[in-house]
Design a protein that fits this description.
single chain, about 325 residues, 2 domains, about 65% helix, DUF2891, DUF2891 domain-containing protein
Amino acid sequence: MVNGPEDVQQPRERHPAFHGCYDWHSAVHTHWLLVRLLHEHAGPASTVDGEAVAAVLDDHLTPANLAAEAAVLRREPSFERPYGWAWLAMLGAACTAAAADGVPGAQAWADAVRPAADVVADLVLAWLPQAGRPVRDGTHASTAFALALLLDAARPLGRDDLAAAVRAYVEEWFVPDADAPLRWEPSGHDFLSPGLAEADLVRRVLPAGGFGAWLSAFWPGLDAAQPQTLLEPVAVPDRTDGQVGHLDGLNLSRAAALAHLADALPADDARRPVLTRSAGRHREAGFAALAETGFMSTHWLGSFALLALDAGR
């Protein structure tokens, strides 16, 4: 919102930490990607340039820059809700984990990001009690995908209150769901599967013994490998189109969710191989998009590729 001349700024002035991508949330999760790559994949035998990555993070993740970002979040409490919020919490969690493992510089990044991550947690705590029905969407508005990331971030951040609030919301609004309209997926510019995002969220909340039964009610066709439209990768007709190109991300986010769902089921569950095979096909299709050179693809797909790799491991 522009309330006066002071609100008309260049992106790097308004967002000194998170600018340079097509959108704020992509800049946030690209920093998450850099922290994760430095933490887990940099080294003498790696193609990750650890010094270059650390230099960018040192330059961007400073107390002053993050204080400016936190100020925007406080001033505009619906800005980037919930997707950007969730990625900022994930960035804080990644920095905290890297610091715990002694990654050089990571403690300074964690300390800088933490106040902004706490603002996000407080915003979520204020929002969820009045949020009402979830947004069952395949793009940034998705309630399920954001809450899953927030749950993952809450523990490293030590925000038990955040985790409890998310769990309560999931138990109220998602756990009662059954017979999801999965055959309607995908929409034309999804980068998330509404059904898989919900199932991947619920498996974080339900005990292992109860999740299989919930999944049977939610996805009754899975035993018969149906619907095929959810289990087969999506073709992307035009990667230069910023909306249609979302479908590459859909293949990657599906790969992550499918693999997680398989791991949440017992070893002898007949649905596991169906999910695992589908996850592999989606990973292969999604990774092919990483060879693209267009900014519409490269500014965000790497983060979703890492989510798919994490789940595959």
